[in-house]
Amino acid sequence: MVELRADLTDRFISDHPDAAARVLEQMAADDIGNWLPSLPLHQACRVLERTLPAYAGRALSDMDSRYAAELFGCLSSTTAAAILRACTPSRRRDLLARMNPSTSTQIRMLLNFAEDSVGYWMQANVFVLPQDIPVEEALRRLGGEPGQLDTETLLVLDRDRILRGGVSVATLLRASPDKLIAEILSPVPYAVPARMSLMGVQHHEAWQSWQWLPVINKLRQFVGLLRHIDMHHGLEQLTRAHPAGRSPTDGMELAKVYGETLLALFGTFSEVFLPRKDRRE
Predict the structure, then answer these.
(1) Which of 31, 150, 236, 251 ranks highest by number of CB atoms within 10 Å?
(2) How confident is the model over 217-276, as pLDDT tens digits?
């Protein structure tokens, strides 16, 4: 019976990974901590790849660190980085330290942003909704969300973390409980790249009617939210730090931004390619 149940679970995840992700998003953290380790590693990773990062981050927050680090080793780098952004800074540092050097280096490169970039000043841990759940489930998740929401419009993503639009709380309350979010969302016409300079986004036309902007990576996946107030705070801080108008990524500052990454890459190279007697201990 146990083998049959495991086989059914394996088939369900293989055939319906999005449905499995929806189930995980509704589970309590303790239940996730018991369920995920019971799966083959590749199946646990398959579910996490289709789970929205905010929920995956919460799921891994109290999980055994060694097992969680092992999970990150089989996730794509972009998924791993997205999930780590939803974790606390201390948890993020702990998990990165436990990963093998090559995995850790790839993820760090995606997590690190220059001080004058949009990504440095964005809010990464944002409440979002998947487009494939019904309104009733969306309201349940909203009711269980601690703290105050960053926006009146809730952003909606697909399972590839692509921004598909937004939906207001008022719209959710008026909609039929069994309607899918995808059926009631409205377009969100603007998004800015995470690597874009903060200076370059300050005159964006969206600020005339929006108090925030979605932030995306080079794959057009949602990675965070830039609030108008945070942009101004960042620009003021950059102006004080660089009164002559130089970008913090100019000259020596550029070397400072990328120095750690280059060192980490060299460390990865030596770990993978050099015989142990040639490595610096």
Answers:
(1) 150
(2) 999 999 999 999 999 999 999 988 776 555 555 444 444 444 544 444 444 333 333 333
Give φ, ψ of 101 to 5 degrees.
Answer: -55, -40
Residue 99 CA, distance from chain mean position = 18
Q: Are 13 and 39 in contact (CB under 8 A)?
A: yes
Tokens of 213: 């902007």
| Per-residue tokens: 245 | 């108008």
**Dist CA 161 CA 172 (whole Å):** 21
Residues constituting the chain:
281
Of 142, 143, 144, 146, nearest in space to 155 by CA? 142
Whether the per-residue pLDDT at 278 is higher than 80: the answer is no
Contact 198, 118 (CB under 8 A): yes
| Global pTM value | 0.77
Beta carbons of 223 and 215 less than 8 angstroms apart: yes
Amino acid letter at 242? H
Q: Which H or E run contains 10? A: helix 2-15
Neighbours of 272 (CB within 10 A): 10
Q: Token pair for residue 42? A: 């590749």
Convert 239-253 to b/e letters by CB count within 10 Å (16 or more is b): eeeeeeeebbbeeeb
Residue among 272, 204, 270, 199 at smallest CA distance from 237: 199
The DSSP-derived string for 70-115 is HHHTTS-HHHHHHHHHTS-HHHHHHHHHHS-HHHHHHHHHHH---T
Q: What gap in Å lies between CA 207 and CA 210, rounded to an integer?
A: 5
